[in-house]
Amino acid sequence: MTANDTIYALSSGGLPAGVAVIRISGPAAFPAALSLAGSLPAPRQAALKTIRTRNGLMIDRGLVLIFPGPTSFTGEDCVEIHVHGGKAVVNALLTELSMFDACRLAEHGEFSRRALENGKMDLVEVEGLADLISAETEMQRRLALEHAAGGLSDIYNGWADRLTRVRALIEAELDFADEDDVPGSVSDIVWADMQRLHSELSDHLKGADLGEIIRDGLKVVIAGPPNAGKSSLMNALAKREVAIVTDIAGTTRDVLHVDLNIEGYAVKLYDTAGLRETDEIIEREGIRRALKTVADADLVLSLAEIGDRPQLDFPGFSGKIVTLGTKSDLYPDQGSKEYDVLISSETGVGLSELHQFLRNDLKDRSESLSLALPSRLRHRTLLSESLAAVAAALASEDRGLDIRAEYLRQAATSLGRITGRVDVEDLLDVIFSEFCIGK
Ligand code: GDP
Questions:
Q1: Residue 182 has what pLDDT?
Q2: Which atom of ligand 1 is found nearest the CA of 225?
Q3: Which atom of ligand 1 lies closest to the CA of 251?
Q4: pLDDT averaged per 10 residues, the chain (length 439)
Q5: Do 196 and 204 form a contact (C-beta atoms < 8 A)?
Q6: Which CATH architecture has domain 214-366?
Q7: Are 266 and 216 spatial neighbours (Cβ–Cβ below 8 Å)?
Q8: pLDDT score recorded for residue 57
Q9: Which of 25, 80, 200, 347 is the most exposed place for a label (fewest CB within 10 A)?
Q10: Ranges of each domain in the chain
Q11: H or E element in which residue 170 lies
């Protein structure tokens, strides 16, 4: 297997389907298409062709498109063949393609990997494309599109270029330091700009929480003592039975979760084991996991049956808590002073108010929303490294200019690793394994 192989794959979804798109990329793409279709259409224009085996047997009729490299998705010669989406049709076509020399089935993400290697996309754009394909909510789609379309990369490249310019100015200052006729020091300009870069980077990093929430979902944990009505609330919100509801305390021992879509935001709702003292070993493990889930949460719904006090602090959690008084159908005369919302999972009362709470929370988090946000731990880590290096350069006034310039070089290297401008070979296998075959 070599990078020079011509690769092919079914790029459209599961079969059977109305139409199936088979994509081919590499040096043998055009000769293979010519053999299959008898003649090639003009570049980027669809033409209806009869697709035949090399023995002249008809496989199907379908559209053929060719995209000459380097102005193609992968940067290589590419072909798309659109045939009827039957399993046997697609199998026959894939089998026929396997007969051509140096033609083989693509691996996961191999088309995108070639696009990256041929400079058609950078790493952030590739990640954005993977996210776009798996996006399920409107906000996930918008965030992924921003990344795939280069919005985030433009920011990082702009910063890296600024760092390069500044280092060049410092070099010049070092080279001409002894000469009397050099105009006033460039230092003032350089460090004022680096101060601005520092605050831009640090503002940008603040958006990482929101970026991760949009991409991975807002983690909302339902917590409270046994029998408070946690599983019933989970079921009511999920509108289906996901948790076992019983009146025997300690039924929910594991952490269950459902994905909700609230106003285009992904919300991951977790039901946890009831928090109480117990000697029962499995239940204790459930409680340990529940506390860990709470500590990782973005928001906690603290439940208590009306009349009981809701828990207001959880070990390791410092975020927002919404208190819910439950089973309001059993306490018709109760006011809501002690709780943010009164709910009854039985009758549905209070659930739309709770929905509103979640919606407002998401709105508060996403004020002045630009979607050029870091959305992965990888981005956050490298941005933090870059920020720390800029801070070190700014704070090293008493050290030589060469040392301060070295910090700025490190800052640019970290930014370059985000977009893949700087060596990232070790990362590529991990990133491309997220893709489906055919992308
Ligand atoms: P968990 O242990 O906190 O998960 O509590 P469950 O959801 O399993 O509920 C415990 C008991 O309270 C069950 O018998 C439920 O039917 C009951 N329950 C839960 N929510 C309500 C409610 O809104 N109204 C009434 N009347 N009963 C409820």
A1: 47
A2: 3
A3: 2
A4: 84 93 97 97 98 96 97 97 97 96 93 94 94 90 93 94 87 67 66 95 91 90 91 84 53 69 88 71 75 89 94 90 94 81 93 89 76 92 97 92 92 93 67 70
A5: no
A6: 3-Layer(aba) Sandwich (3.40)
A7: yes
A8: 96
A9: 347
A10: 6-117, 151-207+377-435, 214-366
A11: helix 151-176
344 touches ligand 1 (CB under 6 Å) = yes
Strand partners, 17: 85
Give the pLDDT of residue 281: 72
Using a 10 angstrom Cβ sphere, with 0-12 exposed, 13-18 middle and 19 or more buried, the burial of residue 297 is buried
- The pLDDT tens digits of the residues spanning 327-355 come to 999 998 777 678 999 999 999 999 999 98
What gap in Å lies between CA 148 and CA 127, rounded to an integer? 7
The first and second tokens of residue 125, run together, are 């754009």
The pLDDT of residue 4: 82
- Probe residue for ligand 1, chosen from 234, 237, 241, 245 as the CB with the greatest number of ligand atoms within 8 Å: 245
Query: Is 245 a pocket residue for ligand 1 (Cβ < 6 Å)?
Result: yes
CATH number belonging to domain 151-207+377-435: 1.20.120.430
Q: 6-117 has which CATH code?
A: 3.30.1360.120
* Full DSSP string of 175-243: HHTT-TTS-S-SHHHHHHHHHHHHHHHHHHHHTHHHHHHHHH-EEEEEE-STTSSHHHHHHHHHTS--S
Which sign, positive or negative, has the C-alpha torsion 204, 208, 211, 213? negative
Taking the centre of ligand 1 as the mean of its atom positions, its distance from the CA of residue 231, in whole angstroms, is 7
- Kindly give, in sequence order, each residue whose CB lies less than 8 Å from that of residue 359, ignoring residues fewer than 6 positions away: 262, 263
Q: Tell me the two tokens of residue 200.
A: 């831009």
Question: What is the CA angle 177-182-186, rounded to 5?
Answer: 75
Q: Which residue shows structure tokens 């139409």?
A: 19
Q: Are 312 and 323 in contact (CB under 8 A)?
A: yes
Whether pTM exceeds 0.90: no
In angstroms, the CA 35 to CA 97 distance is 10
